[in-house]
């Protein structure tokens, strides 16, 4: 809604003092209604032009006073613009209250998000990872884009948030950004944390999430079957870049490392484990949790293959990894050539380690969880739900036991 606004200066003649100085008031008129603010300045009426409502004269005091009055006028206009961008009710009284400090200290969503991210960044490397910080920045950017798309604003007052805001943000993520349900919920969980921060700091008195449930849908993690993994292991490429990517993919299938953790591996990460064998022992980049992984022969063979690789030596790394995007691009070529009916990605290798390599071969879920560096065993249980082959094998053993020929009872 557009408003008509007029800013002027008036003499408060009834308050003229014994020295003949009259106070100057700032008058704000919006839509015909006005409010006045003291400028804390006074002037002799002989130096005041009623027609223009300003001091007149060329000497220094008048010039300084006019500059000061101009600055007050600019403050009023600036506050009007802020209220307009935030969708705050604009009246002469609300602007007066804001300029005089009588208005309630109103915090905004983007202000709260910025505050959170600044505090979070200080803890990166100690309490939190850079990976998690980047995800908060992504959600921050999506909230900003949503405000412009839905409300045509760059920010919104916290007290104006409600259940409708949350559901509208959910709909925006799913329909405009085409986010999957679980991805959408991850963004909303981060937004909820910002709101909780605002509640704890008493910046907002109500919780817009009070009737909103952040629910994640169960997912089936893709993985390679034993035969598919064997097909890749037996494949040899004459193109060096494809062979290198295939080797590193297989390495991750037998270690469970993500691309970022494999990319950062150095020779110092290989240590003697409790059994005297070689282990990879790292702290995961994503969660900063300890991940102890005994090195299987298939993974050790690849480490040996690339120990003198010039690219690895130049980078000071154990293996010559490309960027995750490029690795996944090359894996798409490998997928087509080997006719694997699944989307090969670096993360699929980690899923394969969790299922085909470990859980399906009887490794306890608690052990797998430790090797994967999960902070909760619930995360690992996602993988255990899809290992049907292990269920089949176990039940076949049970069936065999139950069908053993029993001794025939003698009839008395």
How would you characterize this protein structure?
With 412 residues, the protein is mainly α. The protein has three domains: 5-100, no CATH class; 109-200, DNA polymerase, domain 1 (Orthogonal Bundle); 226-396, hpI Integrase, Chain A, CATH 1.10.443. The chain contains 16 helices and eight strands. The chain has helices spanning 60-86, 92-100, 109-122, 130-151, 163-175, 181-200, 226-233, 240-253, 259-263, 297-305, 310-315, 324-338, 346-358, 365-372, 377-384, 388-402, and strands spanning 5-11, 21-30, 33-44, 48-49, 54-55, 270-272, 278-283, 290-294. Strand 2 and strand 3 form a beta hairpin. The protein is elongated. The protein starts with a strand and ends in a 10-residue tail after the last helix.
Could you give the order of the helices and strands?
EEEEEHHHHHHHHHEEEHHHHHHH
Walk across the major sheet and give the strand order.
1-2-3
Q: Which class do the helix and strand fractions yield?
A: mainly alpha
Termini Cα gap = 102 Å
Number of extended strands: 8
Count of individual helical segments: 16
Overall, the morphology is: elongated
Q: Proportion of β residues?
A: 5-15%
What is the CATH homology-level superfamily of the largest domain?
A: Intergrase catalytic core
Poorly predicted ranges: none
Largest sheet: 3 strands, antiparallel
- As for the number of domains, it is 3
Which architecture of the largest domain per CATH? Orthogonal Bundle
What value does the average pLDDT take?
89
- CATH level 1 name of the largest domain: Mainly Alpha
* Helical content class: 40-55%
Q: According to CATH, what is the topology of the largest domain?
A: hpI Integrase, Chain A
Radius of gyration: 34 Å
